[in-house]
Amino acid sequence: MSISGSFRLVNARVIDGTGSAPVTGAELVAVDGRIAYVGPSRDQVSAEHRALPTVDARGRTVLPGFFDCHVHVALSIEDGLVAQFADAGSYAMLKTARRLRDTLDAGVTTIRDLGGLDNGFKRALADGLVTGPRANLAVGVISPTGGHVDFSLPNGHVPRPGADQVSYIADTDDQVLTAVRELVRSGADVIKVCTSGGVSSPTDQPDDMGVSERQVALIRAELDRHSRRRRIAAHAQGAAGILAAVRGGVDSVEHGYGISDEGVELMLEKGTFLVPTLSSALRVPDPDLVPPYLYEKKVRWSRIAREHIARALQAGVNVALGTDAGVCPHGRNLLELVHLVELGMSPGDAIVAGTRNSARLLGLDDELGTLEVGKTADLVAVTADPLADISSLADPANVELVLKAGKTVKDTAGLTTDVLDAIAA
């Protein structure tokens, strides 16, 4: 049993995602899935609001539903690379559905999947056929031949199924524009390009160049012809690839491990977002479980990322939360907050990165990202004070209540069940 869209939440401590100080003894009212009031508890409550089911938060901290702006829900390196290509399609789909549920249970109510999840899953989530966060999609990734998502084997064979659903290999300007149009046709909300090589790819390095600055600008011009503004996200790890991405006009730099002082200044000037994916960057795998090339690159680039991302955070670049889940474990998304704080961000600013800033990056800030009147009632509740202990959000077990558009999707503390039991009595 659960509440469904309209309720009055009392006795809460609200962190609203705007960066404002918490409000203790707070009250939040949602009507038809939208916030109608949030603020200090009121002595005078309208008859309409007083008649709503009342949820006692029992002093818990209530925050906006979080975002993860960089996931690969259809992928799990932990399952092994062979499984990515060997699983039957139906079995792979069911595993993806479970990962979506795990992500929602972690407190993430909106994701941006940057390669692998298709428009069918987005529709299934929106229609309630699958339980999980609402989804913003890249569908696939544009890369040059031999680039970051060119999965061709040394003999030229491309493993299938799987690789062809993600990789859009494009070298010439015409090929790049065709790939963009195909992705838009497939339902992409964001176009993802690889302007550098990567840590996990076997045939290139993060310092190698990928899609060029000029081609990024061509993509920007192509997307600007459409009435709906789609974002551009750049897989960019080395310093040169980051500069090419920002100069070309991307909205976000994904990873950004080797960002230079010049790159930081340019991002500040243009307002470009950084999605640092520290959950992946700082995680060095067991060398017995990955190829030698991958382990060696991870050791080197984890050190580089720690140093360079910390400088970018200190300089004040716009940061949105993203984990690269799929490369790192699913369902532990808010561990990213801990890493952001570890590298110098305050707990309050880390929370803003995972809520308001992420909504701004996705162009959803009119609807989501903060607990404000008129916005969709996505929220989570925890017993601990995340401003005093940000690590409390990293364990999904501590996320006791999750509401998506005002509807209960997780309630391990029985807060909303108690309400319905009282109504029934």
From TrEMBL:
<dbReference type="GO" id="GO:0016810">
    <property type="term" value="F:hydrolase activity, acting on carbon-nitrogen (but not peptide) bonds"/>
</dbReference>
<dbReference type="InterPro" id="IPR006680">
    <property type="entry name" value="Amidohydro-rel"/>
</dbReference>
<dbReference type="InterPro" id="IPR011059">
    <property type="entry name" value="Metal-dep_hydrolase_composite"/>
</dbReference>
<feature type="domain" description="Amidohydrolase-related">
    <location>
        <begin position="61"/>
        <end position="409"/>
    </location>
</feature>
<dbReference type="InterPro" id="IPR057744">
    <property type="entry name" value="OTAase-like"/>
</dbReference>
<dbReference type="InterPro" id="IPR032466">
    <property type="entry name" value="Metal_Hydrolase"/>
</dbReference>
<dbReference type="InterPro" id="IPR051781">
    <property type="entry name" value="Metallo-dep_Hydrolase"/>
</dbReference>
<dbReference type="Pfam" id="PF01979">
    <property type="entry name" value="Amidohydro_1"/>
</dbReference>
<protein>
    <submittedName>
        <fullName>Amidohydrolase family protein</fullName>
    </submittedName>
</protein>
<keyword id="KW-0378">Hydrolase</keyword>
